[in-house]
Design the sequence.
């Protein structure tokens, strides 16, 4: 009994921590319909500014808070003005990608300025503890809860009673109409980003003090948990975000209580998927009616794809095919092998996200399923490697489709969030299902690639093999796109309501797209497993999913050639920037931002 | 560069490539260029802090090696390629190193997925992969070019168990471990040894690296009513757990694996890590000459900063590399063979390091029993906490 | 109302507008005289609503001039234009559905800073639209179409505009409300506010307008005093329907 | 009201509420085979909601829909499309990035046979396989459908044929409406629901569309039409139903409805339509 009380208190405490991020996310989503993936980075920046203030400048707590809030707000304003405002009129996915790019840049800047070593951020409050149940709480717990609740209340009051608050609400409900009332929508956006960033910065600082620890890896985790909490509460709903956060904290705490620590995040993400399936708009947003007509794709803007003549493709293919016959280093070949493997994943994702409109952020899970299946088939059942890889593809197609199917009834951002969660769930199941996956130890000694009894171990042979597989998959996908299925997928993407009215079952065709795409991703994972000889639950992580999505958007949604071009570009760029050492990811982030800014429909255009 | 590549292309066979490497080595041996080692490790991404610590240890060791005349008059240098600890990048780096004739040996990578994914390439390419932080039991099974000075957990954990059970007299233990290959292997070895010494394992909890909130985990620990907490953690998560354990009112003895040994552990843990016991390879007052040299050299080079375990690992690794290159020269195969020949290399971690040719690892890591007293690591005086 | 060449309040001259490659307006020229009701007729997609958006600065024309009270509106943002004294009743009302009726009406006074006078104006709106009095705290989205139209008009009046632009104010309203809305437009106008309205329903619009323009695929095909146009057989053909039967 | 023996579509007590608002209020309706019924009424009267209920895009809170004697209440839109119910949308829902040809081919989706074998469970996988392999039967079916599409597009004269390969987003508003109707025809519907097919069309285009609907009716197609243009309604309809605030306020032949005082009060009004005005004045 007393333990349950403690679990409840602990859940609420960590829930408060999540709420600090979720509230900022909700505020931004409310006005811009944008999930700000840079919110965690602002949180990070706030934590380090707090460190400078406390450790170097010895500011007292109230002043620390003011300094951090002001500096973070400034960062928020800069992001809004230079990162997002120029994208106001481009495709809806462009700002989303931009926030990802901004988070790369911010995280790297902090890392370069402060070094990646964790630092202690001492609390500036007296260390008194109050007994509560079996545990204790301290002044920081109360301060965090206070800041969370107070900021939610202040926001509530601000939105309800201030003129600017009204403008924010009006702009979030109807941008054009608000402008016609004289609301300067850009100002409103700025205000919102400033407030959200100030809140994010202060929360980073408080959480840093709470743990007496800050480091550059805290950003992504904060974003992930904040997004889960926000979406559970109902995207864009500020009080909902607070309640969603507390609920998330409780579910995690009870999950630990019942099943143990390593299941904690599994429950967080399961909660999200369950909420999305039962209440697709979150707990505190009433379900909307069908989107207004005419609806032309959620994310897809009309664009004229760049048509590349067949002969040019054939020539390019031939050049790549004979490349190993020329004096190129194995390093170049290996880099291209990586590009071909990423290319298979991108083909898969460009089909489901581009052609089908289901923007998946959990695609690495398909790699993992394929890799584990192929590795285990060949290791434990002695299945020949070639067949094992196909087995991996099939398993990924079947299991992946089944796992992702709960997201089929969702639209827009919610698909991305649900698939993100499903991807995390797969990774956590791999970690915990030790009898099959060997848990954290991972699978080692995976046999190398073989084909018809011949070992493919020289870089050239692996190169040819992966290139050939990718080309075959690309040709098949090209053929698929010209069939009635390609037409049906695109119709569902453009307008799922009209598509249903003409007999296209969403479940059936989304499944087919994921089956085909899952196969390609599974094959890619399978090849990777045999290439690496060792895999574990971290080999295929969220960063891979984000990278694949970046490739797809850069190449042009739905564009088969674009997926391959994008893969070569995004595998190649970081390698090219290798000379920049610590700066390369920063440069990569900036290049990404520039591409989003100047070519949001992708290099080759959306199909 | 193109020299070897052209040859390998014609036949596409590894033998040809090896011959090419040997061939080009002859030309290089005369030059005054430094002998080059490749390092594959994280400089960006979530593990960037460890790459930064590696560099400090490497640079200190190189200063000393060069002050002592280098390798038969030649300098030793390293080329650090950022892998982000990502297997996709570590394999590309592996190809880069393998096909670069200047590289005589490789050090790293940091994480097991990144290191072991690259192993087949190093093995086939005939370049030593010296994984000095790779404790994964299967790492050196990748082939005879895989060598490691990472302390085997089969060696370390019984020492920790002995400290906890026999010396501190803890009988009922709660084990918290990082849920990675390292943490998991360590836990298994620890649990086995602790049981042999007669302790009961009340509960084991694995947590993921990103975890920061341990309050609920600690309620589980409390409910199992252990008399000691065992942390198989790195310093940052170890400090977090210790702090939160004290915050939720757990007063049991805490005993941690040597990987928490870092001044950061004291800084991040604050008062909460007072009286935490830990095993370690060395300690600040350690009179061993190699330790004194390391600590004093490190403080002098890095503005008084205290070194930590990862600094020591990389410092030792560079010294070991120098010793191996001294024997093996710049021939890649000879270097591999030299690993079996080096004897009693001065080492912070091992005192004197000699490889066990069977396991390609070094046995007999030093172990000191420390406790945190007044915010300092001190040798345990045998008094119960 | 006299026809003695009143002073122009709003003019559009030779406006050309494009959506991507498609041209929406061809040399559009329209004049709204001070104190007049001017109505722009045309079918769907004839470019009517775009005309309104140009006046409000929501769409930028590629060429041409728009002036209000002698000053150019080109290059001004929508909020700046609103501050010059143009209020709008957008198509399909466009209320802030999740805000209360009261908040919606007060949003109309967003550009004003005279709190007391705003409060008085709110009271005046409630005498003008008595039905809204009982609905003040209700969500605007829960009102019927006619009530929403009342809110939209009250909201527009709250900025004390010199001119109101309206996009299909009678669209989809039941005849009761249609009559009411027309009465209101007339009384607003008599209080000195010029009105520019876009309408599909020609017979209604021509009943209250002083002048009218007919827009077809981006070109003005007919214009003149409303009374004259009402009897124009071309108008009857195109917009009044059933004329052949009659 | 006369009882329809061979009623193709019948609605009984159909009701749909949104929050406090009853959008469709206990509507009864019978549509015989080959009949054309128009539904008129002010915007917000519930006409489009009624269409959504009949085509499965929305579920009624009460009441039933039956089609050819079968209860189809609450069936999914894709099932109903397969049953032969096609519709167009009020503001147009074309597939913006698809060509005109592909848009109309989607209309024929329910008629695909060769590529969609009627095998349970593994049917979808066979469909994937057939799409990739494309045996002769599949190719032939696709070819034949393409020919059909061209024939359907030819009904619109030169409006669509020259633009057959252009993406729908590049079309004019009126042409998008035409594409929608062509798509509906490609389904070979047994029941066609047209939601304001002439919205946004000028008088010439309206006349064309009126001619087309008359043709379809003459070909025996059963049609439910929502339309504001009274003249067209009067000319085409066998019966007219007037809705207001979710309720059916009148039903009957066009002339009868037009002179119904209730209709004049609620919908036609005084002075709303030139004709209505004159007649009510008369």
Sequence:
């Amino acid at each position: 009994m007393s333990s349950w009380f403690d679990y409840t208190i602990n859940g609420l405490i960590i829930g408060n921590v999540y709420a600090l991020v979720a509230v900022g996310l909700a505020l931004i989503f409310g006005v811009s319909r944008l999930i700000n993936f840079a919110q965690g980075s602002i949180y990070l920046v706030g934590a380090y500014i707090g460190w400078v203030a406390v450790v170097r400048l010895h500011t007292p707590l109230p002043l620390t808070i003011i300094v951090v809030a002001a500096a973070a707000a400034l960062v928020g304003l800069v992001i809004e003005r230079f990162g997002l405002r120029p994208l106001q009129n481009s495709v809806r996915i462009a700002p989303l990608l931009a926030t990802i790019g901004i988070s790369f840049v911010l995280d790297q800047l902090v890392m370069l300025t402060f070094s990646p070593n964790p630092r202690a951020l001492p609390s500036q409050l007296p260390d008194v503890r109050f007994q509560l149940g079996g545990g204790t709480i301290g002044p920081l717990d109360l301060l965090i809860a206070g800041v969370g609740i107070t900021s939610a209340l202040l926001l509530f009051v601000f939105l309800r009673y201030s003129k600017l608050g009204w403008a924010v609400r009006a702009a979030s409900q109807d941008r054009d109409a608000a402008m016609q009332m004289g609301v300067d929508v850009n100002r409103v956006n700025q205000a919102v980003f400033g407030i959200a960033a100030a809140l994010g910065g202060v929360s980073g600082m408080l959480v840093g003090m709470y743990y007496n620890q800050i480091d550059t890896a805290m950003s992504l985790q904060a974003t992930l948990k904040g997004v889960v909490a926000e979406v559970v509460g109902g995207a864009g709903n500020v009080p909902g975000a607070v309640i969603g956060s507390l609920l998330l904290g409780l579910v995690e705490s009870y999950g630990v209580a019942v099943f143990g620590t390593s299941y904690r995040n599994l429950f967080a993400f399961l909660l999200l998927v369950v909420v999305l399936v039962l209440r697709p708009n979150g707990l505190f947003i009433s379900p909307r009616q069908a989107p207004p007509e005419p609806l032309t794709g959620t994310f897809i803007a009309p664009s004229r794809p760049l048509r590349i003549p067949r002969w040019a493709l054939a020539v390019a293919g031939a050049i790549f095919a004979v490349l190993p016959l020329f004096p190129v280093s194995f390093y170049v070949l290996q880099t291209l092998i990586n590009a071909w493997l990423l290319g298979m994943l991108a083909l898969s994702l460009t089909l489901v996200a581009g052609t089908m409109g289901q923007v998946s952020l959990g695609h690495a899970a398909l790699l993992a399923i394929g890799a584990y299946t192929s590795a285990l088939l060949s290791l434990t059942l002695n299945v020949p490697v070639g067949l094992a890889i196909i087995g991996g593809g099939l398993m990924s197609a079947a299991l992946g489709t089944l796992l992702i199917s709960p997201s089929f009834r969702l639209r827009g951002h919610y698909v991305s969030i649900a698939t993100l969660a499903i991807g995390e769930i797969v990774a956590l199941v791999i970690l915990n299902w030790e009898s099959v996956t060997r848990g954290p130890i991972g699978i080692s000694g995976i046999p190398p690639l073989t084909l018809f009894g011949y070992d493919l171990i020289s870089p050239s042979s692996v190169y040819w093999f992966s290139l050939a597989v990718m080309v075959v998959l690309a040709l098949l996908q090209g053929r698929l796109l010209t069939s009635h299925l390609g037409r049906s997928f695109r119709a569902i993407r453009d307008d799922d309501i009209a598509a249903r009215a003409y007999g296209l079952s969403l479940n059936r065709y989304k499944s087919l797209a994921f089956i085909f795409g899952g196969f390609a991703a599974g094959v890619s994972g399978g090849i990777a497993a045999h290439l690496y000889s060792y895999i574990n639950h971290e080999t295929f992580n969220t960063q891979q999913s984000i990278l694949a999505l970046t490739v797809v958007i850069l190449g042009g949604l739905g564009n088969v050639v674009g997926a391959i071009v994008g893969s070569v570009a995004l595998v190649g760029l970081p390698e090219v920037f290798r000379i920049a050492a610590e700066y390369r990811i920063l440069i990569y982030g900036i290049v990404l931002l520039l591409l989003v800014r100047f070519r949001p429909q992708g290099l080759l255009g959306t199909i | 560069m193109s020299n070897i590549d052209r040859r390998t292309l014609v036949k596409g066979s590894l033998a040809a490539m090896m011959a090419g490497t040997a061939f080009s080595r002859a030309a290089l041996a005369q030059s005054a260029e430094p002998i080059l080692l490749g390092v594959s490790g994280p400089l960006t991404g979530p593990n960037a802090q460890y790459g930064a610590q590696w560099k400090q240890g490497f640079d200190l060791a190189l200063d000393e090696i060069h002050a002592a005349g280098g390798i038969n008059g030649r300098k030793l240098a390293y080329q650090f390629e950022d892998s982000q600890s990502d297997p996709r990048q570590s394999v590309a780096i592996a190809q880069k190193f393998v096909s670069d004739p200047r590289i005589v040996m490789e050090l790293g990578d940091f994480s097991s997925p990144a290191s072991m994914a690259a192993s087949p390439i190093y093995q086939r390419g005939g370049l030593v992969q010296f994984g000095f932080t790779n404790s994964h039991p299967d790492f050196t099974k990748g082939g005879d070019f895989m060598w490691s000075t990472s302390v085997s957990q089969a060696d370390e954990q019984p020492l920790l168990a002995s400290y906890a059970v026999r010396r501190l007299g803890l009988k009922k233990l709660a084990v918290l471990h990082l849920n990675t290959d390292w943490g998991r292997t360590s836990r298994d070895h620890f649990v086995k040894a602790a049981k042999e010494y007669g302790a009961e394992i009340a509960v084991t909890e694995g947590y993921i690296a990103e975890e920061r909130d341990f309050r609920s985990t600690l309620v589980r620990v409390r409910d199992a009513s252990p008399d000691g907490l065992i942390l198989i953690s790195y310093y940052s998560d170890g400090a977090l757990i210790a702090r939160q354990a004290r915050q939720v009112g757990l007063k049991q003895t805490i005993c941690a694996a040597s990987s928490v040994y870092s001044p950061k552990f004291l800084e991040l843990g604050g008062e909460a890590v007072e009286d935490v016991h830990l095993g370690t390879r060395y300690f600040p007052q350690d009179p061993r000459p190699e330790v004194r040299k390391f600590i004093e050299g490190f403080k002098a080079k890095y503005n008084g900063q205290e070194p930590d375990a990862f600094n020591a690992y990389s410092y030792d690794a560079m010294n070991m590399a120098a010793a191996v290159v001294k024997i093996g020269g710049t021939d890649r195969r000879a270097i591999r063979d030299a690993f079996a020949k080096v004897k009693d290399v001065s080492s912070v971690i091992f005192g004197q390091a000699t490889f066990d040719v069977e396991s390609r690892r070094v046995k007999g890591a030093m172990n000191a029993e420390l406790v945190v007293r007044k915010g300092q690591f001190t040798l345990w005086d045998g008094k119960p906490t | 109302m006299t026809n003695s060449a009143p002073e122009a309040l709003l003019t559009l001259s030779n406006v050309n507008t494009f959506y991507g490659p498609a041209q929406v307006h061809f040399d559009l020229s329209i004049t709204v005289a001070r104190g007049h009701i001017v109505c722009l007729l045309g079918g769907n997609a004839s470019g009517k609503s775009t005309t309104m958006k140009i006046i409000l600065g929501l769409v930028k024309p590629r060429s041409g001039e728009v002036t209000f009270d002698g000053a150019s509106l080109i290059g001004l943002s929508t909020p700046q234009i609103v501050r010059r004294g143009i209020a709008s009743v957008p198509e399909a009302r466009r209320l802030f559905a999740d805000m209360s009726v009261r908040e919606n009406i007060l949003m109309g006074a967003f550009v004003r800073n005279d709190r007391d006078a705003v409060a008085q104006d709110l009271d005046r709106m409630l005498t003008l639209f008595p039905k809204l009095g009982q609905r003040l705290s209700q969500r605007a989205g829960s009102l019927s179409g006619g009530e929403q139209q009342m809110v939209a008009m009250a909201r527009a009046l709250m900025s004390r505009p010199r001119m109101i632009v309206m996009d299909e104010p009678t669209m989809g309203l039941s005849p009761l409300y249609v009559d009411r809305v027309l009465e209101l437009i007339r009384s607003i106008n008599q209080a000195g506010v010029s009105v520019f309205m876009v309408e599909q329903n020609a017979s209604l619009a021509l009943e209250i307008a002083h002048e009218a323009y007919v827009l077809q695929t981006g070109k003005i095909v007919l214009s003149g005093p409303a009374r004259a146009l009402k009897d124009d057989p071309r108008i009857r053909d195109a917009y009044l329907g059933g004329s052949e039967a009659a | 009201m006369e009882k329809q023996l061979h009623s193709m579509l019948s609605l009984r007590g159909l009701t749909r509420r949104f929050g406090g608002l009853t959008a469709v209020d206990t509507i009864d309706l019978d549509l015989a085979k080959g009949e054309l019924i128009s539904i008129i009424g002010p915007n917000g009267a519930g006409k489009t909601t009624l269409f959504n209920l009949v085509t499965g895009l929305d579920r009624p809170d009460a009441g039933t829909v039956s089609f050819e004697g079968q209860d189809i209440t609450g069936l999914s839109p894709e099932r109903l499309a397969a049953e032969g119910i096609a519709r167009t949308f009020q503001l147009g829902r074309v597939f913006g990035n698809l060509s005109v040809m592909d848009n109309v081919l989607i209309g024929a989706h329910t008629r695909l046979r060769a590529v969609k074998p009627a095998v349970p469970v593994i049917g979808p996988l066979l469909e994937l396989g057939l799409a990739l392999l494309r045996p002769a039967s599949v190719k032939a079916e696709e070819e034949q459908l393409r020919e059909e599409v061209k024939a359907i597009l030819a009904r619109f004269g030169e409006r669509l044929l020259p633009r057959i390969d252009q993406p729908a987003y590049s079309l004019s508003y009126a042409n998008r409406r035409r594409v929608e109707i062509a798509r509906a025809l490609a389904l070979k519907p047994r029941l066609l629901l047209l939601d304001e097919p002439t919205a946004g069309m000028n008088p010439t285009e309206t006349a064309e569309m009126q001619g087309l609907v008359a043709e379809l009716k003459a070909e025996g197609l059963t049609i439910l039409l929502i339309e504001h243009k009274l003249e067209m309604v009067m000319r085409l309809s066998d019966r007219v139903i007037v809705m207001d605030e979710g309720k059916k306020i009148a039903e009957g032949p066009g002339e009868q409805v037009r002179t119904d005082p209730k209709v004049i009060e609620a919908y036609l009004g005084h002075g709303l339509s030139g004709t209505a005005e004159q007649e009510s004045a008369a």
Q: What stands out?
A: Strands of chain A lie at 130-132, 135-137, 450-451, 454-455. Residues 2-32 of chain A form the longest helix (31 residues). Residues 306-318+328-598 of chain A form one domain.
